[in-house]
Amino acid sequence: MKNKKNSFFTFCCSLVPGAGEMYMGLYKQGISLMLIFWGVGAFGGWANLEVLWAVVPVVWFYSFFHTHNLRNMPEEEFLAQEDRYLVFNDVDFAKADEVLKRNKKLVAAVLIFFGICMLAQIGMNILNPFIDGFFWELAWRLNHSATRIVLAIAVILGGVALLRGNAKDAPLEEVVEEQ
Predict the structure, then answer these.
(1) CB neighbours of 37 closer than 8 A, spacing ≥ 6?
(2) 3-class state of residue 156 by DSSP
(3) For residues 135 and 76, what is the distance between their CA atoms, to the nearest angstrom?
(4) What is the pTM of this model?
(5) Rounded Cα gap, residues 38 and 30, in angstroms
(6) Phi, psi dihedral angles at 80 (to 5 degrees)
(7) How far is residue 6 CA from its own chain's centroid?
(8) What is the pLDDT of residue 169?
(9) Per-residue pLDDT tens over the stretch 131-171
């Protein structure tokens, strides 16, 4: 694998996040960037979290400049590059079944909730021209915001869990200070 690829094709591939890395031979990095770029955009659009769209240009610029930096690296430095996934690289997926079994009810509840939200939105889109009024508007707004509400609560609970985790670690710090 060498990094001195055709400059025109390198430029063309660098316009699509991840494609440039894949053209350079770093497939895991390319797939990671593609999944992050398209996944964040799709999830942000689906969950009506416009703030996630701020991540999309950052990923695009990173991928664009990363591709050109790879192409301009000295051959020895390029060959030393490790092709690895950018996210979940150190996760042992062999234990995923165990984690899923332990949290089976939670995963099921989340899937059911999002499925109900999706069906409700589809139903409301179909019925919208035929029904009007205050309660319809209220139901429409609540349904439209349901995923955002749940995600906001999950983020808050995650932050609280992190804070509680730090509080549990505090006695260990005191022991270290005493020594």
Answers:
(1) 17, 18, 56, 59, 60, 63
(2) helix
(3) 67
(4) 0.61
(5) 12
(6) -80, -10
(7) 32
(8) 55
(9) 878 888 888 788 778 777 888 888 888 888 888 876 555 55
Amino acid residing at 11: F
> Are 53 and 41 contacting, i.e. CB atoms less than 8 angstroms apart?
yes
Q: By three-state DSSP, how is residue 29 classified?
A: helix
How many other C-beta atoms can be found within 10 angstroms of the C-beta atom of residue 150? 15
Task: Count each helix (H run) and each strand (E run) in the chain, helices first.
Answer: 8, 0
Task: List strand residue ranges (DSSP E) for 32-152, in order.
Answer: none
Domain boundaries, the chain: 7-79, 95-178
Terminal-residue alpha carbon distance, the chain: 53
Q: How many CB atoms sit inside 10 A of residue 6's CB?
A: 11
